[in-house]
Write a structure and sequence with these properties.
The protein is an alpha/beta fold and 463 residues long. The protein has 13 helices and 15 strands. Helix content is 35%, strand content 20%. The strands form 3 sheets. The chain has a 6-stranded mixed β-sheet, with helices on both faces. Belongs to the TRAFAC class TrmE-Era-EngA-EngB-Septin-like GTPase superfamily. EngA (Der) GTPase family.
Length: 463
């Protein structure tokens, strides 16, 4: 068990560089950054390191005064919730723009919280920010820490300010060192305890964020009737029945021809990156709209990246003619995803919670199959039986000889078959072997990669 890290939350008005600072501290571009105000809408967590300080950093939406029921109001509620869980707040303002009325309002609001607040003057490189730095003393939060998140300047000063606050928290959370246990049982337990990296993808307004909020049992993500609220992928640590999960919410994927906005293009690229990061992906469909060609394209993207796939019909509680809808989607998936049979199709409701326990059970089972390794002896017993049932063809009267198979890796399961004249093997025979692997060796619904290589078995005596 790892000690609990202290949490630092970045707050401030829109477009002062909060996400740029977040990316700087986590060491990679996890949050979307653009000149458009209000890009960040959900709070995002990441593992930050600043020299020898390790902590959890939280990026938040820009703070605005707005009605609680509006999108801006729901974004502000997420910022408020992040502050309630944090140990330190970094109030970021734009030194070049100076102190604005909204900065003053935010500083007054933060002073009412019982927590440590550090004032951060971003974009303070050069002389353009000197006036804003001088103005910021009126906020009553002490001397500002002058940085440039974009250029990485001033991080040593930020470290000096954070260290005396975070060190006592780290010391209080420290755990006694345990002797490592290298037994097979301990190794299996560690694998079991690895977080399931579980991404939820789909078209805009399919209910992805609502579904995650229902799983978490809290309003963790901003939701509403407006399509496209989620703009960047949000990874959320969670625990389901004692097992670690990393839930990943993503931006909705529309048809490529409709994606013309620069920010939406960035969101699409971020969603594809989230698929790369995931182990299992659930493609969420809106049951009131059924299956469309774009859904099949998204499914094909997931499978081409070699990830486990689950298809879930959301909003099932309000779907009409449920039986024919389910059968129609099942048939369309089987026909449209010819490269893989048996993709799990589930019915769920993010609004009511129906089917979510089944969804998580199937997700863990999909990862188990995706991670499965088959011993070489068991694999070749199956392989020899498959060749006996249906020998390879003999194009032009010349027999193709397949000698043996081996699994080179898992996640996704990847196999190599050795033989001679394998380049003449028809695609139909490759599909026969892939389907046999899936049906008989426990890889149902999992993408399988199978390649062929020439050359003889080095252990074969008739070389």
């Amino acid at each position: 068990m790892s000690p609990i890290k202290p949490t630092v939350v970045i707050v401030g008005r829109p477009n002062v560089g909060k996400s740029t600072l977040f990316n700087r501290l986590v060491g990679r571009k996890l949050a979307l950054v653009d000149d458009t105000p209000g890009v960040t809408r959900d709070r995002r967590e990441g593992a930050a390191q600043l020299f020898d300080l390790d902590f959890t950093i939280v990026d938040t939406a820009g703070f605005e005064d707005a009605d609680a029921a509006s999108l801006a109001g729901r974004m502000r509620a997420q910022t408020d919730a992040a502050l309630g869980e944090a140990d330190v707040a970094l109030l970021v303002f734009d030194a070049r723009a100076g102190v604005t009325p909204l900065d003053r309002h935010f500083a007054q609001w933060l002073r009412s919280h019982d927590m440590k607040v550090l004032l951060v003057a971003n974009k303070a490189e050069g002389r353009a920010g000197e006036g804003g730095v001088a103005e910021s003393y009126e906020l009553g939060l002490g001397a500002p820490i002058q940085i440039s998140a974009e250029h990485g300047e001033g991080l040593a000063d930020l470290y000096e300010a954070l260290m005396p606050v975070l060190d006592p928290i780290v010391a209080a959370n420290a755990l006694p060192e345990e002797e490592p246990d290298e037994s097979p049982e301990a190794e299996e337990a560690r694998r079991y305890a690895e977080p399931l990296k579980f991404a939820i993808v789909g078209r805009p307004n399919a209910g992805k964020s609502t579904l995650i909020n229902r799983l978490l049992g809290q309003d963790r993500l901003v939701v509403g009737p407006e399509a496209g609220i989620t703009r960047d992928s949000i990874a959320i640590p969670w625990e389901y029945n004692g097992r670690a999960v990393r839930l990943i919410d993503t931006a909705g994927l529309r048809k490529r021809a409709r994606v013309i906005d620069k920010l939406e293009k960035m969101s699409v690229a971020d969603t594809k990156h989230a698929v790369d990061f995931a182990e299992v992906v659930v493609l969420l469909l809106d049951a009131t709209l059924g299956l469309e060609a774009q859904d099949l394209r998204i499914a094909d993207l997931v499978l081409s990246e070699g990830r486990g796939l689950i298809v879930a019909l959301n909003k099932w509680d309000v779907a009409a003619d449920q039986s024919s809808l389910f059968q129609g989607v099942r048939k369309a998936l089987d026909e449209g995803l010819a490269q893989i049979k048996g993709v799990p199709l589930l019915t769920v409701s993010g609004q009511t919670g129906k089917g979510l326990d089944t969804l998580m059970k199937v997700a863990f089972e999909a990862r188990d199959a995706w991670s499965r390794r088959v011993s070489t002896s068991a694999l070749n017993r199956w392989f020899e039986a498959a060749l006996d049932r249906n020998p390879p063809p003999a194009p032009h009267g010349r027999r193709i000889k397949l000698r043996y198979a081996t699994q080179v890796t898992s996640r996704p399961p990847t196999f190599v078959v050795f033989g001679n004249r394998t380049d003449e093997l028809p695609e139909s025979y490759r599909r026969y072997l892939v389907n046999g692997l899936r049906d008989e060796l426990g890889f149902e619904g999992v993408p399988i990669r199978l390649t062929f290589r020439g050359g003889k078995n080095p252990f074969d005596g008739d070389r």
